[in-house]
User: Which sequence fits this backbone?
């Protein structure tokens, strides 16, 4: 392989190395709040680490307060570092599953999944991240909590914003199709007009050449 080829392949190798080291970005998205009875529902809870270059460990604890209660009770805890998870509320026995980060000691997605939702699951849920940043000389603990007010309904209802967004989507699609049709007609007419103009110019040029040729022939005949 020539030196020039090696120089050309070097940037590609660097790009491939960077791509292999890339990790997905963390985005804190709010959880849905409307669950359907007898169906599954994901309680989303994401807490992104602000200092990505600092190693850390984290645990997640969930708490639940029913709509007719005035205090939170422990619901679920997850500690990936120690390979431990536990459902601490008997009302959710065999109905909770981990749906967050996996294969990492530093949890950023602490979501859980409820199976077979019941109307009794209506209430307020709170997830608390306990994260410990591990600096070289000390450890720095951080607590982050998020609250989700969940409502259980017989069937999923669509909000006004969802309906309006769908209507706007169809209006936009139809508008783009109409605009595209107008542009095609305009371009066709412009090309057609340009073609006719070119034909007229070609015909005029042909007539001018023919007339000039005729005059030349007449001059030759007079000279003879």
Assistant:
């Amino acid at each position: 392989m020539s030196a020039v080829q090696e120089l050309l392949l070097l940037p590609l190798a660097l790009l491939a190395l960077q791509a292999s080291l890339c990790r997905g970005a963390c985005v804190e998205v709010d959880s849905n709040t409307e669950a359907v009875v007898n169906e599954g529902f994901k309680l989303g809870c994401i807490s992104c680490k602000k200092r990505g270059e600092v190693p850390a460990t984290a645990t997640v604890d969930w708490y639940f307060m029913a709509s007719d209660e005035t205090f939170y009770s422990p619901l679920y805890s997850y500690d990936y570092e120690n390979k431990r998870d536990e459902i601490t509320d008997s009302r959710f026995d065999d109905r909770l599953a981990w749906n967050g980060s996996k294969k990492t000691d530093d949890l950023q997605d602490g979501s859980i999944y409820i199976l077979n939702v019941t109307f009794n699951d209506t209430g307020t849920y709170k997830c608390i991240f306990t994260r410990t940043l591990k600096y070289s000389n000390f450890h720095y603990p951080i607590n982050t909590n998020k609250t989700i007010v969940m409502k259980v309904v017989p069937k999923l209802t669509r909000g006004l914003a969802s309906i309006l967004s769908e209507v706007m989507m169809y209006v936009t699609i139809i508008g783009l199709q109409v605009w595209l049709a107008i542009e095609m007609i305009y371009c066709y007419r412009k090309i057609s007009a340009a073609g006719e103009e070119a034909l007229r110019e070609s015909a005029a040029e042909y007539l001018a050449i023919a007339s000039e040729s005729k005059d030349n022939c007449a001059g030759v005949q007079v000279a003879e």
